[in-house]
Amino acid sequence: MNTKMRYGILGLLALVALYTGTWAYFAPEAWHENFPGFGLSWLPQLGPYNEHLAKDTGAMFLALAVLTLIALRDVRNNRLVQITGAVWLVFNVLHFSYHVQHLAMYGTRDQVLNAVTLSALVLLSALLLVPLGPARRGDAR
Questions:
Q1: CA 24, CA 31: separation in Å to the nearest integer?
Q2: Is residue 86 part of a domain?
Q3: Burial level of 69, CB count in 10 A (0-12/13-18/19+)?
Q4: How confident is residue 103, by pLDDT bands cut at 50, 70 and 90?
Q5: Residue 125, Cβ neighbours under 10 Å: how many?
Q6: Which residues are within 8 A (CB) of 112 and not within 5 positions of it... i.e. 6 or more apart?
Q7: Is 141 among the domain residues?
Q8: Is residue 99 part of a domain?
Q9: pLDDT above 60 for 141
Q10: Distance between CA 31 and CA 54 in Å, rounded?
Q11: Chain segment 130-139, per-residue pLDDT in tens
Q12: Where are the membrane-spanning stretches (predicted)?
């Protein structure tokens, strides 16, 4: 693992958290009806709209964004980045586990997108557990 990879992974996770968290917290009904966006809608199939649940989800994602942005500012801190990765990994493994058990309610395209997207988030989270390699001469970390 090097710092460029860490920047990329943490940056992507921060964007996911900010995108989802901001939308879910500040426009919960629109989030429920239209998430993940881009012409897709994955939440109504899972049950009726619940403002409390949507806003709590948004708050959780915003909290993940804060943790991730703190780690992004100190990517050389193995402990901080690994803690951030562990927190994301717990969430993403449980999130993935739930959704793969409920794919039948979606069409093939949405099944594939759910499985690919959520498994990629698990992988990215796990990669944050890898410590930085030893500094090499001329290494732009």
A1: 5
A2: yes
A3: middle
A4: very high
A5: 21
A6: none
A7: no
A8: yes
A9: no
A10: 8
A11: 999 876 665 5
A12: 57-73, 80-100, 112-132
